[in-house]
Amino acid sequence: MSDVEFIKKLKRRNMMIQSGRGLSIGNWVQVWYQDRLSPPMFITDISNIVTLKITSKQYESFDCEIDDIRGIPLSPLFLLKNGFEERSDLGITHYVCKIDDYIIIVEFTLNGSSASVAITTEKDSFMLCQLENIDYIHQLQNICGLYGINKVFKFYK
Q1: Residue 105's pLDDT is what?
Q2: Does the residue 98 lie in any domain?
Q3: Which residue of 39, 71, 123, 137 has the fewest C-beta atoms within 10 A of its own C-beta?
Q4: Domains of the chain: total
């Protein structure tokens, strides 16, 4: 594959991440049910309706409408519990995780409401993607998945 083809492929992936609802099997989400949010759950099947499984062993899978699904906000605490290291450079805090040959870097906005995510290769520091306005855990999961990064995010430790 030529360099031009490789760059075009990366741009297509970036456009896919930024478009649509972006729900995938294995994503962590919550459900709006009876005027409140459920505990964190993960998606086990997607068709016309979405099947979710709660993390507690006392509950079984159940189906819900896609409009009832809510993203779980991405937070520094979630990243730290999932193996990211907090680093500061020139007063800017970011969270870094090395997985296989990739480095994932997450940096939150000043008000903490959104994050930017960059993925580089460890070998030559080639920037594979840099995306802004990443608000939810499932968006980070999908970014990793699109680049073949086998990171299993856990909600409870």
Answers
A1: 93
A2: yes
A3: 123
A4: 1
